[in-house]
Amino acid sequence: MPWTREEMAARAANELQDGFYINLGIGIPTLVANYIPKGMHVVLQSENGMLGIGPFPTESEVDADLINAGKQTITQLPYSSYFDSATSFAMIRGGHIDLTILGAMQVSEKGDIANWMIPGKLIKGMGGAMDLVAGVKRVVVLMEHNAKGEAKLVKQCSLPLTGTKVVNKLITDLGEFEFMPEGLTLVALAPEVTVDEVKARTEAEFRVGLH
């Protein structure tokens, strides 16, 4: 049985460590904020200029001026701070963010990621994705394993690249993969999912090192 998006986010929360500064991408990664372990203190950063992001608001707490980079309404915390996007990107480019958890349209077996555009589709800009994968200490990707029957974990990305050899860990609805010096390695499977099923739905070559 494949993992749900919530279960994928909960697994990604295992990457969090006390004191980490973390950037969560739009989509499934935003759910990770719901699974921060009790007693752990981490600080969420948004590239639109906020450090210290609170939980999603209840209906009575919604403030249209408080949004994250994905334009979702959020809440502030007692220690939240605000700044311009230049300062925000200086944090990212300066290597001050410990971990980013992003979505992707494709990931290659070498750790390349494509997540900022589909050719022919109108976009407003690349956002902060390229800076994040280049300037953050560890990159984790959360994505569905397939889209419309097509593999998203591929030998080589066919979509415009966001970064090359930058992904450290990939979590899909089928399993969890580590990008190791010896190659892409499947380290965990969703319940009732088999290695053969993963192979059938994956274009990339990978090793099996379940634990």
Task: Give a short summary of the structure.
The protein is an alpha/beta fold and 211 residues long. It is 14% helix and 27% strand.
Structure, explained:
- This protein is α/β, with parallel strands linked by helices and 211 residues long.
- It is built from four helices and 15 strands.
- The protein has helices at 5-12, 85-93, 129-135, 195-200; strands at 21-24, 43-46, 50-53, 76-82, 99-102, 106-108, 113-114, 138-142, 146-147, 150-151, 153-154, 169-171, 175-180, 183-189, 207-208.
- The strands form three sheets. It has a ten-stranded mixed sheet with strand order 4-3-2-1-5-8-12-13-14-15, with helices on both faces.
- The radius of gyration is 17 Å and the shape is globular.
What percent of residues are in strands?
25-35%
The CATH class name reads Alpha Beta
Radius of gyration, whole Å: 17 Å
CA-to-CA gap between the ends? 18 Å
What letter string, H or E per element, gives the SSE order? HEEEEHEEEHEEEEEEEHE
The name of the CATH architecture is 3-Layer(aba) Sandwich
The shape, in one word, is globular
Structural class by helix and strand composition: alpha/beta
How many strands?
15
Described by strand count, sense and barrel closure, the largest sheet is:
10 strands, mixed
What count of structural domains?
1
Strands in their spatial order, largest beta sheet: 4-3-2-1-5-8-12-13-14-15
Mean pLDDT: 93
CATH evolutionary superfamily: Glutaconate Coenzyme A-transferase
CATH topology: Glutaconate Coenzyme A-transferase
Q: How much helicity do the residues have?
A: 10-25%
| Number of helices in the DSSP assignment | 4
Low-confidence stretches: none
